[in-house]
Each structure stands twice: as C-alpha cells, then as structure tokens.
Amino acid sequence: GVEGVEGEEVKLRATLKELMEEKKSIESSLDENLFQMKSMGITLEERLVDESEFPRTDIDVHSARMLRSAIRKQKNDHKDVMKKIEENMKRL
C-alpha cells in the first residue's frame, strides 16, 4: 500500500542521513591525518628507509606508518560509504 512505500522512503532517507554523517566524519578524520602527514614532511608514497635500507632518522617512522595505515583504511571506508550512498539514492 501507499503507507508501505512512504514508510520505506522514510527509512531510506534516515539511512541516507546516517551515511552522509558517516561520510562527513570519515572525511574530517582523513583531512586531519593528511594534514598531520604533511606537517611531518612526508607523503603517502615516500620511502621511509634510507639508501642503506635503514629506517630514516629525520622522521618518526612508526608514526608515519600508523598514519599511512589509517589513511588507507579511511580512503577504503570512504569508498564503501559512497557506494552505499549511491545505492540508497537509486532506491529513492
């Protein structure tokens, strides 16, 4: 019936709102981590070892690795939430 369709739409809109909030949260954390990495003076691709394959002494290698890992996870989470948003938008 009509109530069922309207109820489904209300649920979809609520789900979309939650997904948009999750997306915003991920983007905020990701921006923070990217800024932190930039302030360390490194990039996602930069080597963390020197020419002799020893950990670089000019950066905190452990922190850099932890940040890189967090950033990769956040990028994957962002991709997943964007896919869910798209799927839900199509159902509206």
Descriptors:
mainly alpha, 0% strand, 76% helix, 92 residues, rod-shaped
Report on the structure:
The chain is mainly alpha-helical. It contains two helices and no strands. Helix 1 packs antiparallel against helix 2 (61-91). The chain starts with a helix and ends with a helix.
- What structural class should be given to the helix and strand makeup? mainly alpha
Largest sheet: none
Q: What's the total count of β strands?
A: 0
- Write down the secondary-structure element order: HH
Overall pLDDT metric: 94
User: Count the helices. How many?
Assistant: 2
Percent helix among the residues? Answer: over 70%
Strand content: under 5%
Low-confidence stretches: none
Q: Whole-Å distance between the termini? A: 16 Å
Form type: rod-shaped
Over the alpha carbons, how many angstroms does the gyration radius reach?
20 Å
In short:
The chain is mainly α and 92 residues long. Helix content is 76%, strand content 0%.
